[in-house]
Amino acid sequence: MNRLMRISTGIALATMLTACATNQQTGTAVGAGVGAGVGALLGQAIGHNTTSTLVGAGIGAALGGLAGNQIGAYMDNQERALRDAMAQSEAASIRRDQDVLTATFKSDMFFDTNSSQLKPGAYNELNRITNVLNNYPQTTIRVEGHTDARGSDQYNQQLSERRAMAVKNALAQQGVNPSRIEAVGYGESQPISSSDAMNRRVNIVINPIRQS
Fold first, then answer.
1. How far apart are CA 13 and CA 96, in angstroms?
2. What is the residue extent of each domain of the chain?
3. N or C: which end of the chain has fewer CB within 10 A?
4. Which residues belong to any copy of the OmpA-like domain (predicted)?
């Protein structure tokens, strides 16, 4: 069977299985499990090897979303991986609020004053978490830019937006699917301290994709 025929067969199988799952199942039986199975079939059809099957399974799982009883363990594992990846960083902190993870980076480590161009060291910091983000594809990523209160509201808002977009682009360049990433600027509107240095920050907020 040539490559084109394998792809066609895989797509047909994927369509059939997805339709069956949609028509016959609701709740936890639909989603990550079915998505992973469909993706695995696509991977095997396209690549005809174990590596392609595993890649396909990961893609399919991302399409399915997480059932409610899967989310806690999934985010537990991702939190451990994220903390391990960031253990040697002096620029970031990790916190968790229920099933939402937030990695906060000091903006001064990422950007010069009044600049939205990433410093070389910023790429090293982001590279620490790239593998984690890619290994847990059933999450969305919101990049938040924050500034201090110096300067006008409008200027700070625009600067925070440009900085958030710069981080999003850097993550995409390092292999994170850009369709998962949202870039948002908050300017000076969400201070967390009386310290300007603390308020200048970039948050990477990670949310689980839930089954609809």
1. 39
2. 3-64, 69-208
3. C
4. 98-210
- Residue 185, φ and ψ in degrees, nearest 5: -110, 135
- Does the domain spanning 69-208 belong to CATH 3.30.1330.60? yes
pLDDT of residue 186: 97
3-class SS of residue 209: coil
Q: What is the pTM of this model?
A: 0.70
Closest by CA position to 181, among listed 171, 192, 190, 191: 171
**Consecutive H or E run containing 71:** helix 68-85
User: Cα–Cα distance between 158 and 96 in angstroms, integer?
Assistant: 28
Q: According to the model, what pLDDT value does residue 2 have?
A: 52
Tell me how far CA of residue 21 lies from CA of 17, 66, 72, in angstroms: 6, 15, 24
Binned average pLDDT, 10 residues per bin, the chain of 212 residues: 49 45 36 42 43 43 73 96 90 92 94 94 92 95 96 96 98 96 97 93 96 80
Nearest to 36 by CA among 17, 12, 16, 9: 17
